[in-house]
Amino acid sequence: MAMSLEELRKLRESKKTDIQRREAEGKEIQVIVGMGTCGIAAGAKVTLDAFINALDENKLVDRVLVRQTGCMGLCHSEPTVEVKSPGMPNVIYGGVDAAVAKEIVQKHILGRELLDKHILNKPAADILQ
Q: Domains of the chain by range and CATH?
């Protein structure tokens, strides 16, 4: 079935957004979602999708890199998300469901304010050895 010109334009835009989302160049802000087995079991896929949707809604796709990592060693607090933003401390948030993901985009990324009640401490290096 042939596509209309309008359908082709929409497809092109969606593919451009997909490519922009994966492009790391020029993005100072990073959202890193823990996607180890523990994170996935706790709902990290839903969290990842919520970040992508919230960034799309706020037209932040060209400023924020969303990427995945393995287990951060904080299995009891999954889903875990690390946020790196210039001029702010690197923060790991725990228990990040879809609602908290949207709150992180609104308050931390846009509002430049930490969500204290969701912040986790990383285990000290000597504990991990």
A: 27-128 (3.40.30.10)
Spatial separation of the C-alpha atoms in residues 111 and 26, rounded to whole Å: 20
Q: Where are the beta strands (DSSP E) in the chain?
A: 29-34, 64-69, 81-84, 91-93, 119-120
Residue 113 token pair: 């304010």
Burial annotation 24-49 (CB, 10 A radius, 16+ → b, else e): eeebebebbbbbbebbbebbbeebbe
Give pLDDT tens digits for 59-83: 998 899 999 999 888 889 999 999 9
5-33 pLDDT, tens digit each: 888 888 887 776 666 666 666 788 999 99
Pairing of strands 81-84, 119-120: unpaired
Whole-structure pTM over 0.85, yes or no?
no
